[in-house]
């Protein structure tokens, strides 16, 4: 079986349409891996405009990584209070800095640049409260690795496209599902698809009321799991089989 056959039949057309619409907007993510990790923590359950301001306040209060590494959790909580969950987030930051300092002898993630993808992801996911999505965001945005973080938007849209099936009763993306979906995305398209699916999920392909009529990838989408699921012939293969893009 050719290696390319593991990719959905529609993946390149979808990627091209999304790139034309959203131009690979990076959602303000950062090139420094430690800053990127902090940025993601600030963004947890927080609106975009709020978490960007929260991150800026954190950096203003603690200009250097060493300043933050030496700060008690209650001090860290103050500048990020406006973003919500400041107690939880500050304790998480405190625990992360302790673990990073213990491993590298300094508050830095620069040593990850010389690690393989596998080793860097293993280190990050061993940190307190860091799962595969967060680890892969750091790898993708800050380290330029060809990984595919699966956030709620990527997972929802990939399922609607038929690229992957859920394995959990409640439909959430389990760690094994994140690996399955990453394997279905060509490495050279992972950055573009990740950022553009995020844009699409926020603007058009929302959880409750996707606006399929204006969606740039509607021609390739069978709308699986939505009330607006298509019955048109493009949603199935010529022989009446299921969508040929559907994942294993």
Layout of secondary structure:
Elements (H helix, E strand, L loop, with lengths): L10 H12 L10 H11 L4 H14 L3 H5 L3 H5 L8 H19 L12 H9 L6 H11 L9 H10 L13 H9 L6 H14 L45
Question: Would you write up a description of this structure?
Answer:
The radius of gyration is 20 Å and the shape is globular. The longest helix is centred in the middle third of the chain and has 19 residues, at about 85-105. The protein has two domains: about 5-25 and about 150-235, Endonuclease Iii, domain 2; about 35-140, Endonuclease III, domain 1. The chain is mostly helical and about 250 residues long. Helix 1 (about 10-20) packs across helix 11 and helix 2 crosses helix 3. It has helices at about 10-20, 35-45, 50-60, 65-70, 75, 85-105, 115-125, 130-140, 150-160, 175-185, 190-205. The chain starts with 10 loop residues before the first helix and ends in a 45-residue tail after the last helix. The chain has eleven helices and no strands.
């Amino acid at each position: 079986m050719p290696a390319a056959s593991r990719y959905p039949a529609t993946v390149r057309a979808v990627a091209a349409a999304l790139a034309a619409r959203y131009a690979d907007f990076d959602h303000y993510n950062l090139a420094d891996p430690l800053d990127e990790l902090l940025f993601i923590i600030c963004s947890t359950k927080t609106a975009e405009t709020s978490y960007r301001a929260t991150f800026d306040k954190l950096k203003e209060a603690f200009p250097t990584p060493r300043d933050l590494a030496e700060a008690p959790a209650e001090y860290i909580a103050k500048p990020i209070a406006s973003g919500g969950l400041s107690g939880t987030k500050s304790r998480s930051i405190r625990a992360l800095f302790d673990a990073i300092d213990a491993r590298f002898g300094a508050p830095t993630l620069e040593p990850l640049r010389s690690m393989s993808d596998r080793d860097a992801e293993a280190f990050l996911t061993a940190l307190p409260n860091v799962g595969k999505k967060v680890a892969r965001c750091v790898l993708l945005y800050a380290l330029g690795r060809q990984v595919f973080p699966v956030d709620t938007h990527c997972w929802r849209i990939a399922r609607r496209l038929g690229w992957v099936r859920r394995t959990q009763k409640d439909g959430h993306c389990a760690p094994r599902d994140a690996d399955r979906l990453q394997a279905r995305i060509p490495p050279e398209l992972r950055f573009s698809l990740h950022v553009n699916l995020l844009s699409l999920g926020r603007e058009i392909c929302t959880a409750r009321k996707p606006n399929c009529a204006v969606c740039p990838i509607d021609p390739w989408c069978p709308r699986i799991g939505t009330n607006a699921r298509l019955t048109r012939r493009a949603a199935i293969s010529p022989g009446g089989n299921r969508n040929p893009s559907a994942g294993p």
